[in-house]
Every structure is written in C-alpha cells, then in structure tokens.
Amino acid sequence: MTRAKHRVSRRSGGYLASVGSTAATSVAISGLGAAGGLILARYLGPAGRGTYAVIMSYMLAAATIGECGLTYAVCYTAARDRPGARDAVRTGGTMLLGLGLFVGAAGIVVAPLVVHDRAAVTAFRVAFAAQPVVFGASAWIFALQATRIGSWNVIRVLQPVAYSAAVVALALADLLSVGRAVLCLVGSMVLQAIAAAALCRQALPGRGRLRRSIGRDLAGYGGATMISSVSYLLNTSLDLLLLAVLVQPAQVGHYAVAVSMAMLPQPVCAAFGNVAMPRLAAGRPAVAGGSASGADRRVVLAAVGASLAFGVLCIGVLSAAAPLAVHVMLGQAYAPSIGLFWLLAPGAAVLGCNRAMDDVLRGLGRTLPVARCEWTGTVLTVALLATLVPTIGVAGAAVASSVAYLVTFVLLLRVALRSVGITARSVPARLRRATGRGRLEWVAVPSDSGRGNA
Fold this sequence. Notes:
By secondary structure, the protein is mainly alpha-helical. It is built from 15 helices and no strands. The radius of gyration is 22 Å and the shape is globular.
C-alpha cells in the first residue's frame, strides 16, 4: 500500500513539475507574441495590423481543418504505444505532408478572394506556400509532446524567438511591412521544423515504417478530434473571419488588438491540458470504458481548477490595466480596443480552461463529447454574430464571442467532471481539503463513481 502511494505521489509530482516547465515556456511564448503584436501594431498601423490578422486567421483555419486531427492522433498514439511510436510518426507525417500540399495549393488559388491589394495577395500566398513544411513538421512536434515534454517546450519557444528577433530587426531598420512579417513567420517555422526533426530522432531513434493499420487508427481518432478542433477554431476565430469581409481594416485592427489581449492568459491555462493529455492517454485502461483511476481524477481536477483560476485572475488584472497599457504602448489610435477587450473579458476568463478541458477529454479518449460541447458554442456564436454584428458592429462580435465561450465552459466542465466520476457539488469540498493540506491531492469524500460517464 505504501509503495502504491509513493508511485501515485511521484506521478502527481511529475505532472505538476511538467506543468510548471510548460507554463513557464508558455509565459515566454505569450510575452514574445504580445511584444511582436505591439511592434506590428505600432509599425504597420491599424490597417496593416488588420491585414496581417486576416492572413494569420485564415492560416490557422486552414491548418486546423486541413490537418484532419492527425496531430492530436499522433500525440495520443505515441503516448499509448511507445514501441510503435516511430511508425506512428512516420505514417502520420506522410499523411500530414500530403494534406499540407493540398491546403497550400488551395490557399494560393483563393488568395485574391480573401485580400485584395497586390502586396496582401502576395503575402497570403507566401504564407500558404509554406504549409507543406508546417504540416509535415507537426508530426515530429506532437510526438515530442507525448514522449519528451522538455524537448517539446524547446521546440515551441524556438519559433517565436526566431520570429520576434527577425521582426525587431526589420522594425529597427524601418523595413517592416506585412509581406516581410509573413516572411519572418515562414522562416521561423522552417527553423522549427528542422529542430523538431532532430530532437524527435533522438527521442524515437530509427526511421519507422509506413503502416496501413496505424494510418487507419490515426484517421479514426483524428477524424473525431477534427470535429471538435474545427468547432473550437470557429468559436475563437469566426468573429475575425466575418469582420474581415464586413468592416474596414482599421476596425479589424482594433478588434485584433482586443483579441490579442484577451488571449494572453490562454497559453498558460492550456499548459495544464497540454501535459495532461498524453499522461491520461498513457494511463488509459486497455479495455475501453474502464473506470478512471484516482491519479486520473487528481490530474483532471488540477488541470481544470488551476487553468480556470489563472484565467480569471489574469483577465481581472488586464481589465484594470487595459486603459493605461493601450495608451502607453499603442497610442490614442487604438483607444477603441479597450472597450472591445472589456466586452471580451468575461468569456476570455474561461477560454483557456476550455482548451485545457478539451485536451483532458481527448486524453481520456472522449473526443466526441468535446465536439458536442464545442459545436453547441459554435452554433450560438453564429446566431449571435448574425444578430449583433449588423446592428452594433465590432462590439457585437465581442459580445457574441464572450457569451459563446461561457456557455461552452459550462458544458465542458460538466462532461469533464462526470468523465472521471466527480459531481459538481463535491468539487468545493475536494478543493478546500486539498488546499488545507497545502497541496493538490485526492481526499476522501463520498464516491461519485456510481454516476457513470456523461
């Protein structure tokens, strides 16, 4: 019994240590992203910043839809089956490369339909021409998440460091433009791909083999994951995608700044899910439908509770600091961004927790419940955008997004807790007792396991 407790303690400690390093990496990435966004906003102006935001939004949308959930599938499979991880990376990488070629070609063709001036069309096409490299490298990156979380963090921070350094150099030389910013982004992604390949080869020696059976498994898990990933993307990006064709670029620029501020806590909140996903996958019982272990419950409670607490605290501080921060760092031209951020704030406080819960449920193999919750939020987003944007403009987009994030949070929380046999009413007691002991650990309360999964 004592030996079992020691194993559980080491597992919990390992989880929290990995979350700490991942959160620290995410803070660095978030800081670099915020600094890069400020430089772009200052040197490109509202119109240029809006054009860049549109290109990035379409890149993200194309990547999320085009990769068909295979990145999560590679991570999940590599975590569950370490002996077959190299074959999963080789098979998944080949599938992703093919998808990247298709997405890149499609983006090049449709560029004139999305942006209109010649320079913006060229920048859009350059961004999509790099998609085969981005897609192919993602297999190595997500395999590292499953096998070597430290190497994964190194790879994650490498790209924004390289990108920020290049953008700063161009800004200092007064050469920064939308097109050059896109070139900096592409170059940093190529560098990340090279480093990911080298580190993945160290973590998983050998080339691996293309296996049809693994391909079928990856496609099955990835397909279910894609359904939820697309809905999450729509929940977080549909407002910008719609505003890009309905309002002036300067208004999109104001909104993009507000969204950037609202997203600041998300990387740290998501770190709890990033680490939990492969750990929960590795600990899943071999028999489908097996009950969750006590260690799984601790991980789920830690991931959900900590991500929510950080998101609420961070958004509260940002809400108070927003007027001064925007005025000092961006100038009076971006004053409308402050009110837009305040409208986004309630939903932004829980958005990072939503992402963490998505990963928690995927680690438990419950991808379809994630899709149901996220798509409910998407339907609500579409309905509210259609109602509010034509009447109150960009403010309506902020209200619609905030309400949708909150509704999705409630739905995901219910499913996440019930998936590991926890009732909502028992959570405060568990947290109080855990806090009283000075660490987050499972404590004895009446069992909820009889209630089953949602």
